[in-house]
Amino acid sequence: xxxxxxxxxxxxxxxxxxxxxxxxxxxxxxxxxxxxxxxxxxxxxxxxxxxxxxxxxxxxxxxxxxxxxxxxxxxxxxxxxxxxxxxxxxxxxxxxxxxxxxxxxxxxxxxxxxxxxxxxxxxxxxxxxxxxxxxxxxxxxxxxxxxxxxxxxxxxxxxxxxxx
Length: 164
Hints:
5-stranded mixed sheet; mainly beta; globular
């Protein structure tokens, strides 16, 4: 790997997420899961696993979980499964650094879209964006887009006062 991991891997867990409620899988297993980096049947890859810093689990337009990729006890950030078309299983933990991202809209997939992964540049997601958690609310300021977003529980009222 050259440099620091700089990408976010958004993964579509629509099919797998119900397995958690049924007790057949853990959230960690579903999020870090077995992801194919391959484009169709070619030898080309959608992503370089060495560049992945964060994994975002998405289901039906919602962000379900966000994990930071970390080295395991052997210093490995991921491992390959065995088989004719190996898949990648990442090592990581739920992210506290990016937890506020769970309140933002999630990447979506079109019905029938065969690739359950999307790669986003981490710098694009973090540049000019500040988040602050106050109690149960999250305030996000995006200087580039000149937006302020307040995520609060349904039983809270939100008051906005504009300054000149």
